[in-house]
Amino acid sequence: LRISILRGISDTVVNPWSRGAGFGATPRLEMTHSTHDQSRIDLLLVEDDALDARLLRSMLLGLEWSHMTIRRHVTRLTDGVAALGASPYDAVLLDLNLPDSFGLDTFERMRGTAERVPVVILTSLKDLELAQMAVDGGAMDYLVKGEFDARLLTRTIQFAIRHHNLQQDLEDTQERLRETSEELDILREETGEDDG
């Protein structure tokens, strides 16, 4: 009984990343349904460069088929953290170098607030190492300023949301597996059942 129940739950656990795939590899999307089926994707942009912010807005507005919109734009990390606490967002676009925070610390502080929101890093060529460290620390991806167009921007955000949701599903299933295992242990103790 215990083996069959645990096996049934384990079969629902999916690994969104193909074996041996490193950063930048396309994940194996083994789930047949999307956990993010809302028509509109609301973004929080944390970027202190006004020109970069306008460029991002124009990219998204220029795609008729895109349902993404920058719902809020702030220039300081503290304002970004406050915005996340006040309203739900589907994803965060985060510049690492802001007036009130710099480098990897920016992402770490944002992640403390946005654990269940995917974060995409906006970086320059000179900060690629920091961006990669942020990805290793939990960011979904990064975009190099001046090196992407509207289609790559939207695709990166879409995949970031999909990957993040798959990871959340995996963590939730693992938690259910742990709880079921504990319940079965209690049941075995109460019934006096042994491993044999």
In short:
This protein is of the alpha/beta class. The protein is built from six helices and five strands, in the order αβαβαβαβαβα. Strand 1, helix 2 (50-61) and strand 2 form a beta-alpha-beta unit.
- Portion of residues within helices: 40-55%
C-alpha-based Rg, rounded? 20 Å
Overall spatial form: elongated
Mean pLDDT: 78
Major beta sheet summary: 5 strands, parallel
Low-confidence stretches: 1-37
Number of strands: 5
- Physical arrangement of strands within the biggest beta sheet: 2-1-3-4-5
Strand-pairing-aware structural class: alpha/beta
Describe the 3D structure:
The chain is of the alpha/beta class. It has six helices and five strands, in the order H-E-H-E-H-E-H-E-H-E-H. The protein has a five-stranded parallel beta sheet, sandwiched between helices. Helix 4 (104-113) links the parallel strand 3 (91-95) and strand 4. The longest helix has 42 residues, at 150-191.
How is the topology of this model organized?
Blueprint: H1 2-10, E1 41-46, H2 50-61, E2 68-74, H3 77-86, E3 91-95, H4 104-113, E4 119-123, H5 128-136, E5 141-144, H6 150-191
Give descriptors for this structure.
196 residues; 5-stranded parallel sheet; 6 helices; 14% strand; elongated; disordered N terminus
